[in-house]
Automatic annotation (TrEMBL):
This is AAA+ ATPase domain-containing protein. The lineage of its organism: Eukaryota, Viridiplantae, Streptophyta, Embryophyta, Tracheophyta. It comes from the Eukaryota. SMART domains: AAA (SM00382). Keywords: ATP-binding, Hydrolase, Nucleotide-binding. Residues 5-166 form the AAA+ ATPase domain. It comes from Citrus x changshan-huyou. GO terms for molecular function: ATP binding; ribonucleoside triphosphate phosphatase activity.
Length: 193
C-alpha cells in the first residue's frame, strides 16, 4: 500500500443515528475475535441530567473520561471557550485525554476516533494527529458528521476524500448490515497491517 493511503473506515450519518454505538459494537466484535488486538483512541459520550443532554465527554478505550463540552460551564475561563450551538467546548480537557491516545506506536493495530467533528477540531493539535495516524498506515475506524449542504467542515471533507477512505452512511435501517460489513473489512485490514 502506498504511503499515506492507510485504510480509513469512516462512519457518517445524521446526529443521533447511532454512530458511536455502531463503532463500539464493531470494536467489541473485533476484540472478541482477536483478544490481543491493540487498539488506541477515544469515543464521545453524552452527559445527561434529568433525561436532558447537557454536554459531552471524551472517553478513552480504557475508560478514562474528561469533559468535552457543556451547556453548564460557568468557570471564569469557560467564558473564553469556543461554542458549538449552546455547548461550550473545553479544548484543554479534550486535548489532555485525547491527544495522548492518538500517538502513533509501532504495536498499535487499530485507531478508533469518535468523532472528527466541529468540537474536536477546535483543538489545533487534533487534526494534525489524525493525519499522522493516516500516514502511519495503521487502520482507523472513525466517525464524521454528515455534510451540510454548502457548510462542509474542511478537515472532515479532507478525510472523506482521503485515498484510503471508505465511507459508511448509517441509517436506522442498515445498522446491523453495516456493523457486519465494517467488521469484515476491518478484520481484513488489521490482519494485513
Amino acid at each position: 500500500m502506498a504511503a499515506g493511503a492507510g485504510k480509513c473506515f469512516l462512519v457518517t450519518g445524521p446526529p443521533g443515528v447511532g454512530k458511536t454505538t455502531l463503532i463500539m459494537r464493531v470494536l467489541e466484535s473485533l476484540k472478541a475475535s482477536n483478544p490481543s488486538l491493540k487498539v488506541q483512541g477515544f469515543y464521545t459520550g453524552e452527559i445527561r441530567q434529568g433525561g436532558q443532554r447537557v454536554g459531552f465527554e471524551v472517553v478513552t478505550l480504557d475508560d478514562r473520561r474528561a469533559p468535552l463540552a457543556s451547556i453548564n460551564a460557568s468557570s471564569p475561563e469557560s467564558y473564553r471557550w469556543p461554542t458549538v450551538g449552546r455547548y461550550k467546548v473545553d479544548v484543554a480537557s479534550f486535548e489532555a485525554i485525547a491527544l495522548p491516545e492518538l500517538q502513533v506506536r509501532a504495536d498499535t493495530d487499530l485507531f478508533v476516533i469518535d468523532e472528527v467533528g466541529k468540537m474536536e477540531l477546535f483543538s489545533s493539535s487534533f487534526f494534525p494527529a489524525v493525519l499522522r495516524i493516516l500516514e502511519s498506515n495503521i487502520p482507523v475506524l472513525a466517525s464524521i458528521p454528515a455534510p451540510k449542504p454548502g457548510r462542509d467542515i474542511p478537515a472532515v471533507a479532507r478525510l472523506r476524500n482521503h485515498p484510503g477512505a471508505t465511507i459508511f452512511t448509517l441509517s436506522p435501517g442498515n445498522r446491523d448490515s453495516l456493523k457486519d460489513n465494517i467488521y469484515y473489512q476491518l478484520t481484513d485490514a488489521v490482519s494485513k497491517h
